Automatic annotation (TrEMBL):
<keyword id="KW-0813">Transport</keyword>
<feature type="region of interest" description="Disordered">
    <location>
        <begin position="31"/>
        <end position="53"/>
    </location>
</feature>
<dbReference type="Pfam" id="PF13442">
    <property type="entry name" value="Cytochrome_CBB3"/>
</dbReference>
<keyword id="KW-0479">Metal-binding</keyword>
<keyword id="KW-0349">Heme</keyword>
<dbReference type="GO" id="GO:0009055">
    <property type="term" value="F:electron transfer activity"/>
</dbReference>
<dbReference type="InterPro" id="IPR009056">
    <property type="entry name" value="Cyt_c-like_dom"/>
</dbReference>
<dbReference type="InterPro" id="IPR036909">
    <property type="entry name" value="Cyt_c-like_dom_sf"/>
</dbReference>
<keyword id="KW-0249">Electron transport</keyword>
<feature type="domain" description="Cytochrome c">
    <location>
        <begin position="57"/>
        <end position="137"/>
    </location>
</feature>
<protein>
    <submittedName>
        <fullName>Cytochrome c class I</fullName>
    </submittedName>
</protein>
<dbReference type="GO" id="GO:0005506">
    <property type="term" value="F:iron ion binding"/>
</dbReference>
<feature type="compositionally biased region" description="Low complexity">
    <location>
        <begin position="42"/>
        <end position="53"/>
    </location>
</feature>
<keyword id="KW-0408">Iron</keyword>
<feature type="compositionally biased region" description="Basic and acidic residues">
    <location>
        <begin position="31"/>
        <end position="41"/>
    </location>
</feature>
<dbReference type="InterPro" id="IPR002323">
    <property type="entry name" value="Cyt_CIE"/>
</dbReference>
<dbReference type="GO" id="GO:0020037">
    <property type="term" value="F:heme binding"/>
</dbReference>
Amino acid sequence: MKRFLPLLTLGFIVLGGCGLEKPPAKLADEIKEAQNPKEEAAAPAEEAAAPAEELSPELAAGKEIYTANCAMCHDSGMMNAPKPGDKTAWEPRLAQGMDAVMKNTIEGFGGMPAKGGHPELTDEQIKSAVDYMVHGVQ
């Protein structure tokens, strides 16, 4: 065993020195983009920010409540939580009517606890967050 350790160490040193002279083409492109960000890349970010400014005051308030209390589960789709603006996920829920959606949200449904685990929120705050998730995101 004692004879093996120096050979193993020497082997790692030799292999470490045999690294690639240049990165693979795909990795090289990613490195170039990271070092020299294009101005074009900034434009879509500005466009994405524009719809957020167009939200009505009610939906903007719902967005704040959503971001602070609901986003952790709904953005990731945890336990089949419908993502904001995902029409196919919201369609079967909305088919039951908005009153049923609100009842399930306030009282809890499936894996979601009552009021999403935030009992300090009022029913109106919950409604504005749900309105944002259903209508405020395109």
